[in-house]
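Section 5.1 Outputs to date
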Amino acid sequence: MKEITVEELRASRAGNGTQWQWVDVRSGNEYAAGHLPGAANIPLEQIEARLEDVSASEPVVLICKSGTRARSAGGVLKLCRENVMMLNGGTEAWAKAGLPLVLNRATRWSLERQVRLAAGLLVFAGTALAVIVNSNWIYLAGFVGLGLTFAGLTDICAMGALLAKMPWNRARACALPAANHENATETTVAGAIARR
C-alpha cells in the first residue's frame, strides 16, 4: 500500500484543491485522546461494516497511532477502493512534527490501555505474591487471564466497564453561557408544564 509522509499530507490540505478523506482507524477512546483535525473515526474492527463511509471517489488516507492498524485497514479497503494510502508514522509522526491535534482533555488514556495496565498489574501482583507469600495468590493471575479470555471471546469486558466508571474517565461538564443556560431552563420548564 502506498504511504504518505506527514509533510505530504499537510501540503495536501493546503494545496491543490483535491479533496482527501482522512480516516482514523483507532478506537474511539484513542481518537478522542488526540486526532488529526478533520479526520473521521472508523475503528479498524468496523471498516468492513462501514465501507459506505469511506469515499470511493476521493483519495483516502488511513491513520492510526504508528501505522500498523492503518496497514491492516488498507488490506481490507484495497479490495474495493482504488486510491487508499496510509500516513507513515501515524498520529505519533504528526505530533512529533509539531502539528496540531484535536484533544479531548477528559480522556488522557484510552480505556483499552487502562485495561491492559490494570490486568498487567494484577497478573504481576498475583504472581509475585504467589512466589513471596503464598502459592494461592496464583489464582489471581489465573482469574485475570480467564477474564481477558472471556472479554476477547465475547467482547464484554467487566474490567473495562468498571474502569469507565472511574472519576478520571467521567466526562467533565462544560459551563454553558448564561443566555443558553436560561433558554435551556425555560425550555425544560415549558416541557414539564406541557406534559402535565
